[in-house]
Amino acid sequence: MSIKPLLPLLAVASLSACGTDTALSSSFEITQSVFTSALQNMWGPEPEPMRLNISPADIAAIDYDLMLVRADESGALATLPVEDAPNGVKTWASADGFSLTTRDGQIIGTRGFGADILVADVSAAIATLTPESDGGSYSRVYSYLDSENKISEAALVCGLEKIGDAGISILGTPRDTIRFTEICADETVSITNLYWIDRSDGFIWQSRQWISPQIGSLSIQILSRDAEQ
């Protein structure tokens, strides 16, 4: 079975646009039984990767950032390569124009989903989420489109808790990470974000991040990381 689109009408990102061949693109296939098993275990104490039918050699041949994204509400799945990364702000785009924008692994914008994040101030979260951190309190501010296509804002008060060491595996490659849980709320919204950050440099290998009340959260794994970024 081919990888499902992230959301209705959102196609799997084309790898050929980033210089890879069609054989690698076609290798991104997943069986329903493995997909279901992986999702059931992903967010446990020792999360399992979302398993794809692709070899470590295939991943080693990729010289750009590649993200695997799951929409938690629908269970739909897609791969998104980085299209642009000026000054550490990365845009991960599908072949048909849907995209996520991240700063240091934190989602700061989306396009094409409907109830998109227009802009998000996550600077305090970025400063606090480090390997040395024991947690802390800060705020997040979101501007997003609601179900009526009107701009809504959410100023959330957040608390970050360090859970501890978490060895994870992404496509068979072990990652030495630290797990954090972030709980944020205002008068109308309450969210929980999860992060697995690299012990050495704080890189976010795996996360679950809230987008908006209509979209819910996205679960993310970084399959390939550009060593120069």
From TrEMBL:
<feature type="signal peptide">
    <location>
        <begin position="1"/>
        <end position="19"/>
    </location>
</feature>
<protein>
    <recommendedName>
        <fullName>Group 4 capsule polysaccharide lipoprotein gfcB, YjbF</fullName>
    </recommendedName>
</protein>
<keyword id="KW-0732">Signal</keyword>
<dbReference type="InterPro" id="IPR021308">
    <property type="entry name" value="GfcB"/>
</dbReference>
<dbReference type="Pfam" id="PF11102">
    <property type="entry name" value="YjbF"/>
</dbReference>
<dbReference type="InterPro" id="IPR023373">
    <property type="entry name" value="YmcC_sf"/>
</dbReference>
